[in-house]
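Morning - zinc ion inputs below, output right after.
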Amino acid sequence: MTALPPIAAPSMLSADFSRLGEELAIVEGDRDWLHCDVMDHHFVPNLTFGPLLVAAARKLTTACLDVHLMVERPWLMVDAFREAGADVITVHLEACRETREVLRQIRATGAKAGLAVKPGTPYAAAAPYLSDLDLFLVMTVEPGFGGQEFMPEMMEKVSQARDERTRKRLDFVIEVDGGIADATARVARAAGADVFVAGHAVFRAADPRVALAGLRAAIAG
Ligand code: DX5
Ligand code: ZN
């Protein structure tokens, strides 16, 4: 992870794939991350892309590739995404049976290990794993689609994770994903988030470069 928090992580999901090179050119490798949403039409009711596109993104940006696996049996795909160039690989707690083992497997590839929780999953379910991960992803929408409304009630999980990190002197970043734009990013920042995923707010803006600059400023303030 080259960049230091707070970090803006534009989500490729909302980009125009017919001109991906141009779209990803706004992502600055030394300070932003590129968030890659992988969906399998089983864990979530949508289907996106696999390692092939992550490998293409790897050629287009030097930014940290932050791969969010919204798939069933994610452990079967960890190696393929690492080989494609993923720097961070995040799996869903709800999709894992041996969560600690999957986190260990991700780290063994050399990638950073992330664990995500859906809105309905309580903080307490993830808490036992916070000492074994590099990133904790609090979903602020129901995973599956970009362009949904931010759920402020998820901020309690963010603050609980931040407080536990301080109390136990743990070392991980807290990421929020879903409905993030300047105002909601400020709310999440205040609650303790470090990494801010934004799809529509960046790539569907009239000028994505300006929108990304605005998001960086919002989280820096
Ligand atoms: C939703 C994805 C998000 C999505 C966010 O399931 O995990 O990363 O791209 O999109 P916005 O920022 O448009 O809510
Ligand atoms: Zn995501």
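Note: Residues 11, 35, 37, 68, 177, 197 surround zinc ion (ligand 2) (CB under 6 Å).

O.
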